[in-house]
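Continuing the series of single-chain predictions for the mutant panel. This is the parent chain; the variants come on the following pages.
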Amino acid sequence: MDERIKELNLLVLYLSGWEEDNRKEPGQKIFRSWKGYLFEILNEFEEKEFITQNRKSKSVVFTEKGKKKAEEIKSRYF
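Parent structure:
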């Protein structure tokens, strides 16, 4: 799959996300986004440690590495 498509998927995933309280670790924040993207790409993002996902959930959680990568992509397009 074209690398630009993967990058833009990560960017859209990031731009449509939000910060919320971490239910598992009170006092900490997580950055979450809805799953609405190709599972092939989401799985690759998880392998690259950009996101974590629970197969039962309809959203993903961004890692710091994923947020940094998305911001890097954003700066190239905007």
